[in-house]
Amino acid sequence: MPSRVDSLARAREQKWVYWGMRTLLSRAIQVDPTFNIGLSLILIVAVAEIFAASSHYIGRSRAAQVSAQSVAATVARPPAASISARIPAAASAQPTVSPGAALPSASPSLVAQLVREGMELRDRGDTTTALKRFDEALDSEPDNTTVLTEKAKTYDSMQLYDRSNEVWQRIKEISPSDSATYELADRRLKVGVSTSPPPEAENTTTAVDAAPPKDIGGKPEGSVMGIAEVKTMETPDPDAEKNMALQIGIKKQPGATIDHKKVKIFVKFYDTVGDKDIKLTDADVNYEWLTPKHDWTETNPEVLSVRYLRAKTAGASPESSLSEAAAAVRPGQKGRGKGSAANSGQRKYLGYIIQVYYDDDLQAVQAEPSRLLQHFPPSKSTVTQ
Length: 385
Known about the structure:
Strand order of the largest sheet: 1-2-6-5-8
Strand content: 15-25%
Shape: elongated
Number of helices: 9
Oligomer: single chain
């Protein structure tokens, strides 16, 4: 009897435990709604971050692929035409090169930049660095006559005529015989001074060696005046063999006081006669001041215009009158040189020499071509002219 009572009690106790655990578990399974909302927000944020990260790295990968494709296209693109046609120079014609003979070259922009840098350096007086720039351009385009012309002009400005003659000869060899570059090189070679001057030229060479050193623009050191710039202006004229003018900027040095009555400016034009001799021109020479005061009271350069005019037909003038063709200019004057429009047969314009004197002392000299100074060295004083 007692064992039966114990079994009934034990069964009742197990039933109570079962219902208690069931109640507890049913309450634990019921989840708070805010928990579901929070969990959803976390999942949404996680998905958004994964999408953003994927978009970022995919975008960078595409950008890298596009950049690589553009670089490959740039490298594969064939080089453009020679830059020589874009660079203005004294000689405009270029030799014709067949496509089969074309050599790989640097980009035109690089060659143009080297030429511009070389010309700027030469104008500043740094001819050594200028020659390096021209050589760098010639490494890419060895037959570029524009670069060769600038290199030859640089040697001329340094009075290294043996080296400039070699470059002019190279230009003549690679240029067509009817081109402007061929004509320019041929003319420079014909009027050039040989490395071994003839006996009659010994005095001239000595005078050039004794000339005072020049700085930029041809100004002797210690002078109070100088030549700022020279511009050549060509005028089309059907009735003239040559009609051109020089616009010459004459400046004073900073701090200098100028008495314009003591200023003298000589502009002398020269011709080749029979493609052999060099003579003072017999063409018409006129001069005119383009600035109103030309007294150098201000710092700006005073500009003088000198015109060279050779008519197509006329009679000959005596040799003794040729020296009067040079324009001897004094500030405050406007006039005409006593040249004539004579046609002396085989005369062709060659170049000019500009001389500036103050108080009878040489202040500045500039020539184009510069080798004219080898033939006609300037006097240090107007008293000895």
